[in-house]
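QA checklist item 7 of 12: single-chain prediction sanity check.
[x] sequence parsed
[x] length recorded as 222
[x] structure emitted
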Amino acid sequence: MNDESLWEFLLLRLPDIGKALLEHIILSATSMAMGCAIAIPLAVLLVGNRIRWVNSIVFTLANILQTVPSLALLAILIPLLGIGTQPAIMALFLYSLMPLLRNTYAGFQAIDPALIEAARGMGYNASQRIFRIQLPLSFPYIMSGVRVTTVYIINWATLATLIGGGGLGQLIMSGLAVNRSELILTGALLSILLALAADFLLARVEKTVANRVNVNTVSDQP
């Protein structure tokens, strides 16, 4: 296929490509939002938890979910949630938990205990210590987990099409079905570009927020 016919083909399928891209963004963004809403607060709770076996159970379960093959996890979720976007989002959400949980927990653990004790001595309660000391200092760790997990989720979301979840994987599967390399290449390239764009935007957010947080934290630190 020459360049002219390639562009004609892509323009002809532009509505389908745009629809698949939008579905992919929704799948990835929704699952990541759910993952952050659950994993980050859970990691904060685990840091303050003194019952170590509870932490071990939580991390073991998260590790198990991470090791389940994606196709097997999708197959398990189909009887529970049916087919479509719901099981796809749930699978991606489950895969997001472990890296987000681990990085947030590591960030809180890396904070010098002397800072926490000094803040406690100055009368900071638990909430103040978390929001004014621990979260700002662990923010680079948390954002590192968010960025890496987002890239993984965008790539894994291509499998959502296997259960009717849509996304860019639909272009790849359609291309395989009709032997059109243009569709396969378009789906793969858009997935890669979306992952790179998301990582770039999150890096900018991390830098901007970190600069502001550092200024506030320095003034708040005991």
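[x] summary fact logged: The chain has a mean pLDDT of 85.
[ ] second reviewer sign-off
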